[in-house]
Amino acid sequence: MIPGFVDALDVSQVQRVTDAKRVYDAGFRVAWAKSSEGVGYCDPKVRGFLAELEGAGLLVSIYSFVRISQGTPQAQAEKLFACAGDVFRTKVMLDLESAAKGVPATQLCDFAEAFVERVLEEGISTPTLYTYTSFLRERLMPEIAKRPKLLALDLHIAQYRSTSAPWAPASYADMPRGLGPWGRDWKAWQYSGNAGFPIDGIEGDCDRNLIRGTPAEVRAWMGYPPEGFEPDMGGTVHPRVPLGRPALDD
């Protein structure tokens, strides 16, 4: 771990957690689990991932791989929550990395704003925006720089140095820069797609990430209470019903 950063990973149905305790012992402290894609898909492993990884001591949350062509942003935000089964309680992530050619930046940004607004209606803290450097520069810029609601989001940037060999950053000098209106002020960085770079306790290639902050700062940023606040927190996924919203049926 580089000082001032927390190691994180993200998982979806293509991975299998063989031993969540080994993941924790390998130094990882945060995990995002894919919950939904568009309006028609729930990741079948999301609830299990959340329970297993939080049970081993990791901080967990969920993300939506949004599809501009598949339903409204509001419906896709609702799908994100429904698929996770209300076990989430933390900052969620908007994964905006794909759209058909010809979809203008104005439409992409309108979609993202509406998704964020729907999440905020649930009493959840402001989502994180995940995207690739190339998508940010080629599909979202310069329009996104005109959108205060989107600029208020913490940026989770995907930028790999190698997609075919193991690589991990050694210092601050290795880190992304030139990210449009965010400059170098990103919050999380997905630096490896993990080709040939296994994570102990995970079967299958698994993305590696760094999050800025100390463990206590990252814990607060994700929406968890301070360490020790809940006496039964270790090993238990606490159902959370966001403010102003009834529990969703399975």
Topology:
Blueprint: E1 5-11, E2 16-17, H1 20-25, E3 30-37, E4 41-42, H2 46-55, E5 59-65, H3 73-84, E6 93-95, H4 105-121, E7 128-132, H5 133-140, H6 148-151, E8 154-158, E9 188-192, E10 202-203, E11 207-212, H7 215-222
Parallel strand pairs: 1-3, 3-5, 5-6, 6-7, 7-8, 8-9
Antiparallel strand pairs: 1-11, 2-10, 3-4, 9-11
Characterize this entry briefly.
By secondary structure, the protein is α/β, with parallel strands linked by helices.
Describe the protein.
- The chain is an alpha/beta fold and 250 residues long.
- The chain has one domain: Glycosidases (TIM Barrel).
- 26% of the residues lie in helices and 21% in strands.
- The chain is built from seven helices and eleven strands.
- It has helices at 20-25, 46-55, 73-84, 105-121, 133-140, 148-151, 215-222; strands at residues 5-11, 16-17, 30-37, 41-42, 59-65, 93-95, 128-132, 154-158, 188-192, 202-203, 207-212.
- The strands form two sheets. It has an eight-stranded mixed barrel, surrounded by five helices. The chain has a two-stranded antiparallel ribbon with strand order 2-10.
- Helix 4 links the parallel strand 6 and strand 7 (128-132).
- Helix 3 crosses helix 4 (105-121).
- The radius of gyration is 17 Å and the shape is globular.
- The relative contact order is 0.18.
